[in-house]
Amino acid sequence: MHEKPLSPHLQIYKPQLTSVLSIMHRISGVFLGVGVLHFLLFLWSLALIRNDQPGSGEPLLACLMLSFFTAWLIMPALVYHTLNGIRHLCWDCGFGLGIKAVYRSGWLVVLLTCFSFVVPIILFFLR
After folding, report:
1. CA 102 centroid distance within chain
2. Rounded distance, CA 84 to CA 78, Å?
3. pTM for the whole thing?
């Protein structure tokens, strides 16, 4: 039997800002889903910790440290997903559909997302 030719796939295309941002939007949605599950597990673990026993604060401290670290990792995904979602809503309303405007808004989303990731680190070490 003769093999049919495959249609062009992602490997032959040069990555563009728009395609990378689209893929990152989907990945950030997955991270947010994992973050929600982590938050629910955190609440569940808090409910299981008994405070009336000696040394009961150690698991609580470990849970809090892990949660702050996870929140720090999830926050840029939330910022990116939100800003990119607003960008898509603007497109739905007919704003910013020109190629220059699309690239400008894309770079703005990237810049603000990086800013939201770096600023907490700076604030943490300056306090």
Report:
1. 20
2. 10
3. 0.76
The pLDDT of residue 93 is above 90: yes
Q: What is the distance between the alpha carbons of residues 19 and 10, in angstroms, rounded to a whole number?
A: 10
CA 125 to CA 102: how far, in whole Å?
35
Q: What is the per-residue DSSP string for 20-48?
A: HHHHHHHHHHHHHHHHHHHHHHHHHHHHH
- Residue partners of 45: CB distance under 8 A and separation at least 6: 59, 63
Under the banding of pLDDT at 50, 70 and 90, the label for residue 54 is low
Residue with tokens 């400008």: 104
| Domains of the chain in sequence order | 17-126 (1.20.1300.10)
Highest mean pLDDT among 7-11, 19-23, 42-46: 19-23
